[in-house]
Every structure is written in C-alpha cells, then in structure tokens.
Amino acid sequence: MSYTLAVIGGSGLYDLEGLRDVEELVVDTPYGAPSDAIVRGKLGDVTMLFLPRHGRGHRIPPSSINYRANVCALKQVGATHLLSVSAVGSMREDIEPGDLVVVDQFIDLTRRRTSTFFDEDVAAHVSFADPVCPALAAATADAATRAGARVHRGGTYVCIEGPQFSTRAESHLYRSWGVAVIGMTNMPEAKLAREAELPYATIALATDYDCWHVSEKDVTVADIIAVLSSAVTRAKATLRELAPTLPDPTVSPAHRALANAVMTERERIPEAKRRELGWLLC
C-alpha cells in the first residue's frame, strides 16, 4: 500500500532534496480555507503533503489558525498520516535548545479554538487517552536518530493560548506538572486529527528555555529564530528518513476512531450537517 504523509509546519519544510513532481493544491473545505495552498510532491514511493500552519510569511497567529480547515483539507487530498513540526520552549534542563522531542502526551490550555468537527447537531466522543500514534511516534524518533539529531522520546506538550509567552509564575507551574515542552499550536490540531482518523505525531523543536531557567535569558522571538534554522534542517533530514518507514495506519489508535464514537442517531442528523461531514462520515 502506498502512503501519503501530511506535514504541518513551517513553509521551509517542503524544500526537500529529492522531492519531485511538486505542485500546489488550492483546497476548499466546509470550514473555509486552510492556512495556505498545500504543496504536494513525491519522495521515493511516498506522497508528501506540506501545509504551512501559519501561512507563508508567518501571517496567522496561533489563535487564528483554521485548524479544522487544515486537517480537513489534508484528509480530503489523501493524507494517511499527519506529522506536526512545531517550535517549542523546553521545560526541562536536559532538553537543550536545538534538541528534537517526539512527544506522547498533551495538556490543552487553549480557550478560544474550536476543537471538534462535531460542534452542533451531532455528538461524537472519540477516545483520546493516547493522543499520539505510538507507531508513528516511534518511526519518527528512529528517523530523527538516523538523521543525526539529538532526540528525546516521549514527554508532555502543554499548549497555551498565546500569543504572549508565559509569565514566570506560569512557567514554574507547568514545570511542576512534569511537562517537557511548551507551545501554542498542537491543540486542537491533535484532537481534530483523531476525529479525522489520522495517525498523528509531533516533532517538537526546542528553541529556548521559556522563562524558568535562572541562568538563561527570557525567551524572545530573536532567540527562537536563531535556533530554528538549524533545527529545521534536522527536521527535514528526519522527514527524508521517515518517509520510507511509515507504519501501517491500521495499527494506530486513530484507525476507525469514529466507529463507535457518534452518539446521534443517523436519521436525526440534519441533511446540511450530513453534507458538511460527508468527507468524514461514510
């Protein structure tokens, strides 16, 4: 079976050596337009899809990203796996700026974002105890190791609303929870990926120590950009290693996640809602 790996991250990720048959897809969804056009290409036998989460030029702040449109658009054009590449702050001494973290859990502290495709007229409750696909995460960590990156396997990502960075008190609170990294973008992305039955994993690129570290200066955008360039290079090398080793999506907890999740009697779902969810509910 041929697979299609969708990657949500910065616009520079699709500048991959060996990517061929590159084209741009403008996709419409029932939720509006995604962040940008989707770049599609082939890497060996694997189809690659790239979507810049913040749009090209980084023009969309975290709270304004159309997460539903992004996930829906990638699913509509054939994604079988979804990988997030995200800049994060490190909340642990051993996770140094420049390291890659393949997280396995999330804490969602966002407040302003629609986090489900089932927001009205139909109720569905997917299992989300393990929000990251273990098989995809393991394959990603192995690929990052082969690419020469310093990799941390597992860890909790706390997602804040932003766009401001944390206060020092908040940073110390999150550390007391045992989190590994902090960011602003992976929620509700991971929740929507589960509803879309897409195996999901994250490469978290540590760029700073937030503001908790007593011997490091507080995080700034300039600091993030300085570290991000080399981290993106390692992320691209990871993608090249990962593509030929993608796991069977049927072993993922996302596989058939909706099979027993929809509570609403099908005959009571309004026709307009049926059309909206036609890409998701067969």
Characterization of this structure:
With 282 residues, the protein is an alpha/beta fold. It has a domain of 194 residues: Rossmann fold (3-Layer(aba) Sandwich), CATH 3.40.50.1580. The chain has six helices and eleven strands. Strands 1, 2, 3, 4, 5, 6, 7, 8, 9, 10 and 11 form an eleven-stranded mixed β-sheet that branches. Helix 3 links the parallel strand 9 and strand 10. Helix 2 packs across helix 5. The two termini are 21 Å apart.
Strand and helix map with partners:
Elements: E1 4-9, E2 20-25, E3 38-43, E4 46-52, H1 67-76, E5 81-90, E6 100-102, E7 105-108, H2 134-146, E8 151-153, E9 156-159, H3 168-176, E10 181-183, H4 189-195, E11 200-208, H5 221-242, H6 271-276
Parallel strand pairs: 1-4, 1-5, 5-11, 6-8, 7-9, 9-10
Antiparallel strand pairs: 2-3, 3-4, 5-10, 6-11
Helix pairs in contact: 2-5
CATH topology (level 3) name of one domain: Rossmann fold
Tell me what the CATH architecture of one domain is: 3-Layer(aba) Sandwich
Oligomer: single chain
**CATH class annotation of one domain:** Alpha Beta
Indicate the percent of residues in helices: 10-25%
Reported for the largest beta sheet, the result is:
11 strands, mixed
Give me the strand/helix succession.
EEEEHEEEHEEHEHEHH
Q: How many strand elements?
A: 11
Structural class: alpha/beta
Ends distance? 21 Å
What percentage of amino acids are in beta strands? 15-25%
Q: Specify the overall morphology.
A: globular
Give me the CATH superfamily of one domain.
Nucleoside phosphorylase domain
What's the gyration radius in Å? 18 Å
- Number of helical segments with 4 or more residues: 6
Indicate the low-confidence ranges by residue numbers. Answer: none
The chain-level mean pLDDT equals 93
